[in-house]
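Got a spare moment? Tell me how you read both lines of this record:
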Amino acid sequence: MKLLSCLLFIFPVFLYAQPRNDWSAFSRVIKATDIAGKKFKLEAAVKVQLIDSTAEAELWARVDKTNKKMGFFYNMTDKPIRSNNWAVYTINGKIDKDAAYLVIGGLFSRRGIFYFDHFRLWVERAKNQFEEIPLPNGDFEEDSLQNWSFFKNPGFKMAQTNDTAFHGNKSIKVDGSAFKARPTFGTNDSVGQYALVNGITIYYELYGEGEPLLLLHGNSASINSFKLQIPELSKKYKVIAVDTRGQGKSGDDGKTYTYDLFAADMNALLDYLHIDSANIVGWSDGGNTGLIMAMKYPAKVKKLATMGANVFIDKTVVVKLVFKVIDQQLKELKNDTTAWAKNRIRLINMLLTEPRYSFDDLKTIHCPVLVMAGENDLIKPGHTRQIAEHITGSTLLIAPKETHDYPTENAASFNKAVLDFFGRP
């Protein structure tokens, strides 16, 4: 189970971490006793007018079981909707055999105007034969929002509108223009800034005072990955938390993603900030980037702590399940034409081809390096040990019983290891 958990972190399939204060939703409840155990298909039309570039909408479906526990659940947060054009989106699933209710609806987050219309539901009565289940007021043509419930959040207002519709004359409009997020790492406007480097905008946040400490997150993640590190590290260091190119709130110019490109971005960012050298913490992809910075831009790296990094990629490096999960992700995304999906595919493809270094290349690194991984990491222990053995004077930590998620699963231990290492003379 812990292995699956960290796979979902590296290759998100179902859920992305999302601050609880920045979203709301609406729903309706359908009795499910007569459709229990059957496959279902939920469809609705959605479009979004972005005010904040990170705003998004989704459909969601959940099964509430007779024992009051949750069954099937999916909310599309791995496929956020940001298009300003009407399009139909689908959730396919199976209703649990002991289902009491099927709950369906829409989800929306951050500043934007969100439109939903034409909810439709089918269940499989016979193999590959789906019957549509009537959803009264599923197209919002009635004069009220009867059958629908709104989860109240002061930043969002939900009402019927005649402004635009996918089907008929009316749709649901959720106005999130007044939404104001409470500061969270990665969306903290009070400390967040943009730098134009290498032809793109890089988003970063600054915390604390002292020697500069650069935080580099993993694939398809963001600054928020380090939410358990920033409060502690910023007590002693000036933390520079960064969204890597094409991720979080940072921009992208369409170039093929490589860790060398990411390293060049970070080198340019440090130049932009007039920082001659920095301590670096790199987790997963961020660890790969950190190692490359230490090889290609040695003057910029004072000390480096890597977590779950790799030097090259093949079946000797990672556990078998990694490639299975990647293949499944690519299959699910291949027919998705959204900008988000296309970017996600580019990031996944990088995992299959990068990095392209050898252990011997690491011999050019001369700064102090802490090489970390979990005992049950996605990266095989032998690979991590080889990294440490090829970096002169490095320190190796294989954290007992930990996984690739060591920084979040045991933040106190991880933070202590990092602070102790950086605190050495």
